[in-house]
Amino acid sequence: MLAEQNKVIVLQFYKAFDDRKMEQALELLAPNFVAHLAGMPEPLDGEGFKPEGVTSKLKA
User: Fold this and answer.
1) What is the pLDDT of residues 3-27, one digit of tens each?
2) Whole-angstrom Cα distance, residue 23 to residue 5?
3) How many Cβ atoms are within 10 Å of 49's Cβ, its own excluded?
4) Better-predicted residue by pLDDT, 54 or 34
5) What is the widest separation between alpha-carbon atoms in the chain?
6) Contact 33, 24 (CB under 8 A)
7) Report field, pTM of the whole predicted structure over 0.70
8) How many C-beta neighbours within 10 Å does residue 34 have?
9) Which residues contact 24 (CB under 8 A, 6 or more apart)?
10) I want to staple 16 with a disulfide (CB 3.0 to 4.6 A). Which of 24, 38, 47, 55 is the partner?
């Protein structure tokens, strides 16, 4: 995938995330997506990254 194509996908993800369209944002993630977030002891896969998962882990 070209850098410009990646840039478009990332911008679409952030737009959907900012607009709180979480399902739309999650659809843009690769099947093997892994999030490394500050304050999280373990990386999150796509399922763990879903808003309810991230929210509950960040509040803990």
Assistant:
1) 999 999 999 988 988 888 888 888 8
2) 21
3) 19
4) 34
5) 38
6) no
7) no
8) 12
9) 16
10) 24
